[in-house]
Design a protein that fits this description.
Blueprint: H1 3-23, H2 37-41, H3 53-67, H4 86-98, H5 109-126, E1 133-137, H6 140-155, E2 170-176, H7 181-189, E3 197-200, H8 210-222, E4 225-233, H9 245-254, E5 258-262, E6 287-290, E7 303-307, H10 310-317, H11 348-382, E8 387-389, E9 397-402, H12 412-426, E10 432-436, E11 439-445, H13 453-465
Parallel strand pairs: 2-3, 2-4, 4-5, 5-6
Antiparallel strand pairs: 1-7, 6-7, 8-9, 9-11, 10-11
Helix pairs in contact: 1-3, 4-11, 5-11, 6-7, 6-10, 11-13
């Protein structure tokens, strides 16, 4: 494709995206496709000759958009907010269009220096001290893997330069039973076995039980195992429960463990000064992750991993082949030494566009709006005799059950899944069923950029209509 052809097709694509965002509210939220629909439409073999981009645009309109689940729909209340603010979309287009590849500073000075500055801007917005140093990863799953690799090497005094884990005592990783599945996956990839993972009990508010955590640590030490890492949650996946980070830091300090704080979704709320009490003690952690590609509004993927000791991270992750050495080494960070991949995209460009176009005040106001909308729905549910909240509403996620007298208790799980599926299948809204305390509940996650109070009010009416 020539630059002139790109210009013509690009304008048409931008118009299509703008029209999509304008009209997405009119579409059913969840995809109406059946498994295999697009596979049956797509040819079995690749094309032998090129086609006009206009044909592709027509097929996107007729085949792709109708098959999508619309994460930007104002009635999308499933999973977590995965906002893609249009300002960040432009940043993503610029990043892709310029075709930059980060291997070292010399390979793309803007990529490196934008990443330095954007990580620091976000650090300031979160209220973190200047002791923290950030790097952009793809997802929190990768960031947690990096954290556990750092924890492993701290506990083994850099066993990777000898015989790895084979020379070390059996290491143990601790997290809440409500922690994200990526914690287990990261531990396995970092070389820990399943018998080296501890899922700790939780309190009534679903935060980690510090007494149970201590008991498990003491038991492991008595059995010649070595505590290695504690993963705390600022916002668990199912209920947005907030672990006591200060208490976890006490235990991490007492037993010489690495403390990693998973704030993938809820970490964005810390741009609100009034919410920072939810991760009190975070300054005592070794690493923190949050995903600006969730609630904050950056186009997926963009996860920021912060550490207090960047030299430890570099020692764990660095490689220095001759063909990548430059005169700038030592003056500018080589982010290839701060994570797993050698090359990196210009992800900071997406952050820069969002922060420059929206500004901190507007981002804060939007998050406050979402929290206020969650509080409104919480009040409606509290006032209704048949609706119940099964977890505290810390931020913008509500966990609910409908428990009418007409439904026997043994049938409640099936009933809960049925009314949730009824709403999702209707296309009126999309919610997520989940298991909390061994019972099925329904999660309502409020936070799409386009979601206003009227959409939450409509959701409440829809919930009642599908359970009447």
């Amino acid at each position: 494709m020539t630059p002139d052809e790109f210009r013509k097709s690009g304008h048409a694509l931008i118009d299509m995206i703008a029209d999509y965002r304008t009209n997405v509210e009119k579409m059913p939220v969840r995809s109406q496709s059946e498994v295999g629909d697009l596979l049956n439409w797509l040819p079995d073999t690749p094309p032998a000759s090129g086609e006009d981009a206009g044909v592709l645009l027509d097929e996107i309109a007729s085949q792709v958009i109708p098959a999508m689940t619309h994460w930007q729909h104002p009635s999308f209340f499933a999973y977590f907010p995965a906002n893609a603010d249009l300002s960040s979309v432009l940043g993503d287009l610029a990043s892709s269009g310029f075709g930059q590849l980060g291997l070292n500073w010399q390979s793309s000075p803007p990529l490196t220096e934008f990443e330095q500055r954007m990580c620091d801007w976000i650090r300031q917005l979160l209220g973190l001290s200047g002791q923290w140093h950030g790097v952009i990863q793809d997802t929190a799953s990768t960031s947690t893997l990096v954290a556990l690799l750092c924890a492993r090497e701290k506990a083994t005094d850099f066993g990777q330069i000898r015989n790895g884990l084979s020379d070390s005592a059996e290491l143990v990783v601790y997290s809440s039973s409500q922690g994200h599945s990526s914690i287990t996956k990261a531990a396995l990839l970092a070389g820990f076995g399943k018998n080296q993972l501890r899922a700790c009990a939780v309190n009534a508010d679903h935060s980690v039980d510090l007494d149970d955590l201590r008991r498990q640590i003491v038991d492991d030490i008595a059995n010649n195992r070595k505590p290695c890492a504690i993963v705390g949650c600022t916002g668990t996946t199912a209920t947005t429960a907030m672990d006591n980070i200060d208490g976890l830091a006490d235990l991490a300090q007492e037993y010489d463990c690495w403390l990693h704080v998973d704030g993938a979704m809820a970490g964005s709320a810390m741009i609100l000064p009034e919410m920072r009490h939810l991760w009190r003690g975070v300054e005592r952690a070794d690493s923190v992750v949050l995903n600006p590609h969730k609630w904050l509004g950056v186009v997926f993927d963009c996860s920021i991993y912060y550490v207090r000791d960047e030299q430890h991270l570099i020692r764990v992750m660095s490689t220095n082949p001759s063909y990548l050495q430059t005169a700038a080494d030592g003056e500018a960070p080589n982010y290839r030494d701060w994570g797993i991949p050698l090359g990196r995209r210009f992800r900071a460009m997406k952050l820069w566009w969002l922060l420059r176009c929206e500004g901190a005040d507007q981002l804060q106001n939007r998050l406050r709006r979402d929290i206020e909308n969650a509080r409104w729905l919480e009040q409606q549910i509290d006032a209704h005799p048949d609706w119940h909240l099964v977890a505290p509403v810390a931020l913008q996620t509500l966990c609910v059950v409908h428990r009418p007298s007409s439904v026997p208790e043994p049938e409640l799980d099936d009933y809960t899944q049925a009314w949730c599926e009824s709403i999702n299948a209707s296309g009126e809204a999309m919610l997520t069923p989940a298991v909390v305390a061994d019972r099925w509940i329904v999660r309502i996650s409020i936070g799409v950029i386009a979601t206003e109070r009227r959409h939450v009010e409509q959701l409440w009416q829809t919930m009642q209509a599908h359970t009447s």
